[in-house]
Amino acid sequence: MGHFGLFLQFFCDATFVTSEAGHSGIQVDVIVYNSALTACGRASEWQRGVLKMWMMMTMVMMLMTMMTLRVIVITMMLVMMMMMLMLMLMLMLMLLSLMVMLMMIIMVMVRVMVMALVTVMVMMTMTMVTVMVMMAMALTMTMATLMVMVMTRAFSLALELLRSVDAMGLLPTVVTFGAAISATERAAKWPGALLLLEDLGRRALQPNVILCSSAVSACEKAAEWQQALGLFAEMQALEVQANTITYNSAISACGASSEWRQSLHLLEEVDAVSMQVDIISFNAAISACESAGAWVAGLALLQSLFSRSLQMDLITWNTAISACEKAGKWPEALLLLAGLGESSYEADEITYNAAISACEKAAEWKLALQLLFEVQQGPLRPSVVTFSAAISACEKAGMWRQVLVLLSTLANEGLQPNLVTMNAAISACEKAAEWRKAVLLLSQLQSAGHVPDIITYSALVSACEKASRWQHAVMLLADFSTTGGQPNLIAYSSAICACEHAAEWRQAFVLMAAAANSSIELDAVTYGHAISACEHAGQPEPTLHLLGAFDEILAESLDPTLLLGM
């Protein structure tokens, strides 16, 4: 029976073997079921490996497709060269011939032959490439779906096996429950892990630290930090001593939910029980501080890490730099980047993206471009996120020409700008009143397949307002509305301000009515633009009407306590 149990451990379809053993009359004991449950728990790891292998095969298939396309193109070029030589030869023969009619017939036949040959080859090439690409995409999607189904199936099989233990009158052990909970952990099925723990308690079995750690890890994978802390409390009640793995899972669960105070509390508990803290514990806690924007606490943890003589890894450096970036502490972020350069680790794309974003938030565009240049000169390849951060830095500094240069560089790198990138570029042109370039960028954005949002159109309308182009401002606002968008107060206010510059009081009234129909409450600034438009046009009656409405808005916006002198 021991050999039969070992056999199950090395095969993923352990449930089938267990079922066959029962049908064959072989006496199956709890050890066999423990092995089957363990196999179900490992199924997800096996499937992840298969998925990675399949993705590599798909990439190879895509490369083969590109190579095939290249061969076909080269072949077509050779065929065309041969056809040209034939044409030249026939032309020489025709020049020697005096038969004009025969010459015309030959020319027509050659033209038809060449056109037919080229058309057939192009159609064959396009068909072959399309079929191969579609096959690769379909196979990848199918395998990914199967992986998810099998991982879920492994969890279901584990529960079925556990029920089979009861049905056969066998007594499950802590090992049995441990294997089942391990399957729930790998499938991120935390409710199943908690149910299994309750069942364990009803059977008067004492859980061990491995079993509890698996349950906490299941909660961590689902970012259920409250459940993870609840399990910690149960472990203390059952006098089960948590180990470093348990604490790491709980700290990571809190970090995934930005519960940085809970992460720090757990880290203090590790010190209180005189347990060895590893770098994973600190990474999880620093990540929690970074997600919540608690950069002071994150840097304090980093200092504590130095005092413990723990070796920082790349995750630690990246998390600390990202914490400084979210807090707008660009000098600290650059100091950490310099410290990383002196360590044994190499900065990756995440590192530079966080550092450039830190410079972007402070409008330090020169430093952002310097970091981008470092990325381009090194082994790394800048991504759209990298360029977007640098473009935003230039936008905040009003360097619209530099923004356009970066957009051109991005295209030369073979990258496709996203909506965030284009919005930053349009905003840069808006600040410089370069409305024509802003509208041109809108055209590029739409050609790339992106759908402009309210940020896009607000910047465009504002650009036209700054350039006193009220017709274009109104047209853009109408265009956004016809595409299903909902202009906001900023967009309407900018368009009305553009009408103010041109003394277009009637158009300003139309825009105010449109805003009211959209349930947008105009503020005092917008009313001021409309009143000024009426004044510039010499229209006293509309001015008085707007002044009355303006007084009502002003009275509603004032604090009564200020009027009472309180």
Automatic annotation (TrEMBL):
It comes from Symbiodinium necroappetens. PPR repeats lie at residues 313-347, 348-382, 383-417, 418-452, 453-487. This is Pentatricopeptide repeat-containing protein, chloroplastic. The chain crosses the membrane at residues 116-149. It comes from the Eukaryota. Keywords: Membrane, Repeat, Transmembrane, Transmembrane helix. PROSITE patterns: PPR (PS51375).
